[in-house]
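User: Can you help me understand a structure? I only have the sequence.
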Amino acid sequence: MTSILCSLVQIFIYMIIVRVVLSWFPSTSGGVVAQVSYFVGRFTEPVLEWVRRIMPRTGALDLSPLIVLLFLQIVVQRMILKC
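Assistant: Let's start by predicting it. Here is the structure, written out as tokens:
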């Protein structure tokens, strides 16, 4: 059971990283980048939006992916799941 949870957390971490990298590239409607961004966004946006509501505004810089990645790496994998 723990290995399944570790794998799911790791997949979510990869999805956030892909989302951040794809945000650096322009996406055209119907293009591959837009389709991948939409797919990844459907899974990551609920968590990132929750963090954005809690965090103070930092202007145009969105730090929510960094906060979520740190939380997943430190708290979930190291303390709870012992991955």
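Now, to help you interpret it: DSSP finds three helices and no strands in the chain. The mean pLDDT is 88. Let me know which part you'd like to focus on.
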